[in-house]
Amino acid sequence: MSGDLPSRIADIDWARVGGNLRDNGWASLGRVLSDDECTALIKGYDAPDRYRSTVAMRRHGFGEGEYRYYAYPLPPLIADLRTQLYARVVPIARTWTARDYPADHAGYQKQCAARGQTRSTPLILKYGKGDHNRLHQDLYGDEVFPIQIAILLSQPGKDFDGGEFVMTEQSPRKQSRAMVAPLEKGFAIAFAVNERPVEGARGIYKVKMRHGVSEIRSGSRYCLGIIFHDAI
C-alpha cells in the first residue's frame, strides 16, 4: 500500500465514518496497516519487554486465547496510531457525549491520570484453533472514551478461518441486535466502547454495545486494539 501512516489516516472518509458510527455503532476505516507492519507487530508478540502484562482469557472467564498490553513508552507505530486516530474520532466523541474532550491525546491522558488511570491499554490479541472472545466492553475505570479501534493483523481464509468480529446492540425494550464486521488483513474498524446515542421519538436515548470474536476454526488470528482511555 502507498503513503505513510498520517496520509492513510487523513485519506479515510471521516464524514462517512461518523455517519456509520451514528447509525450502527461501528464503521469500517478501510486499510490502515501494510502487510509488513502487520507482520512486524505479530513477530513482536514474543518480545516480552514490549508489554506490561499478559492475560490468559480462560483464567478470567473471558473466553479462550490471550492478549498482551503494551507498556509505556508505546512502540512508535502504536503511539502514532493512537495519537492520530484520536484526533480524527474526538469530534465524533464530542457529538456523542456533549463533552469538550481535549483536541490531542496527550491532553486526554492527563484527564485519565487525574482519575488514577495511568496504565496503558493498547493491546495485541492472539487466538488459535478453538479460541474465542466473549462479548464484553473495554472499561478500565470511571474515565471512558466512547470509541475505540480494532485492526486485524492476519488474513482470513489464509492465516485462519472463523474468528469473525461480532457486536451486539441492546436497545431499551428490544431484543439484542447482532452485527458482524467484515475485516481483512490491515483493515480497521471504529466502534462504540460502551454505548452510543440514538435519536428516538422522545429525544436521545443510549443503547449498550458489546463486542467479541467468534470461535477460530483453524489457524492463528492476531488483532491490534487501540483504546484511548488508560487503565487504573
TrEMBL record:
PROSITE patterns, alphabetized: FE2OG_OXY
InterPro entries given in the database record: DUF2086, Oxoglu/Fe-dep_dioxygenase_dom
Pfam family of the protein (one): Oxygenase-NA
Every Fe2OG dioxygenase domain range: 118-231
Taxonomic lineage from the root: Bacteria, Pseudomonadati, Pseudomonadota, Alphaproteobacteria, Parvularculales
Full protein name: 2OG-Fe(II) oxygenase
Keywords: Iron, Metal-binding, Oxidoreductase
Entry annotated with the keyword Glycosyltransferase: no
Top-level taxonomic group: Bacteria
Family label: Belongs to the iron/ascorbate-dependent oxidoreductase family.
